[in-house]
Amino acid sequence: MTDGPLFHRDRNWHPKGFTPDYKTSVVRSPQKALLSMNTTLSEETGPVFGHEMLGDLDNDLILNFAQPGEMALGQRIIVHGRVLDENGRGVPGALLEFWQANAGGRYRHAKEGYLAPLDPNFGGCGRTITGDDGGYAFRTIKPGAYPWPNGVNDWRPAHIHFSVFGRSFGQRLITQMYFEGDPMIPLCPIVRTISDPDAVAQLIAPLDMNNTIPMDARAYKFDIVLRGRRSTLFENRMEGN
Amino acid sequence: MQKLTHIKENPSQTAGPYVHIGCVPNFCGITGVYDQDLGASMVNDQTKGDRITVTGSVFDGTGTPLKDALVEIWQADANGIYPNGDPRGDADQNFTGWGRAAGDYDTGVWSFETIKPGAVPFPDGRMMAPHISFWIVARGINIGLQTRMYFPNDPMLADDPWLTRIEHQNRVQTLIATEKTPTTFQFDIHLQGPDETIFFDV
Ligand SMILES: [Fe+3]
User: How far is the CA of B143 from the centre of ligand 1 (A)?
Assistant: First the structure.
């Protein structure tokens, strides 16, 4: 038994492309139906990254942009969890890249115009690679909420963006993590591109007091599930096709 | 009844306008964290195969190029072997197969320096014409868009087992690059409109 084609994506669980309350999607969503295909080697293979590419501070956003002896401002948190596939198996060697606003809700980016100040000791990017069981962790500060031009008074809830690589290019995923208890979550037009409340709940990380470091940092747990693959038990036709 | 143990994929969310911070921080001026942006170079002096440049823009439904798109590509080596996860053997050690590029802030143009891929098999064993897989994310795109680029004037196109499954054959040309020079291929991606690129649910 070997790994076969990727599971089809549930396009009703994911957001649709055309979601007019998120205005930018109106001219950026395909108007024709996506063409459904089964995966081939082109989607089942994919880039894999080794732990040797990581720097010591890549998973520490409090320190990785800070001046020597300085630290990023904000509420110190650890984000941890596992990368799994839809069969519930841990995905080892998965590269996670994450980015976020600073504690005041400001991004370090030329196109960013929010009046909240930059933190000179906060860059806002980090990355890590999962271990043998699919586990990962990084340290950062809790990002602030920020306003954005969509409706006249739309705000993003506090969130961390994640880019995830599994073993297959067809598993590529970008998503966002939200924080338990944030009243801004249900108001956000980007969150609301997802129609199923259970799917939204999958992106909300609970506070995890058991993994908090006392007198130092609280913890939030965020698992990330990537597409699974079918077993090929009855697909390798020995007699040929 | 027993329960199936499958769990659901995390739902996608848009990459947003600041995807550069996480994916190409050096490109957007966040230096000193990573030595270089991932996916910036796919080849080196030893890489086998014909060197090519693949360039293009992503256009929205008004015909305006996106200036905040991030494009990733994945392809086989010159012999048609993928650099990771290919059960048929080892690929060229001097080829990564994977590239990532952000559109230029002013023009939206992105480009990759790579090699022409070899053909790879369809699941039934027939060969697919050489192609490059694309994944496009940006602000306003709720879930990454998957498509493929093929090469013009390739005799394998006519029998390609993937392309021949497409009902509307008049749209297949949206997947075929334009040859600008013998080593430069332009592949513009149209999110909407009469030239809307074919995107795959795959
Ligand atoms: Fe954001």
Answer: 15
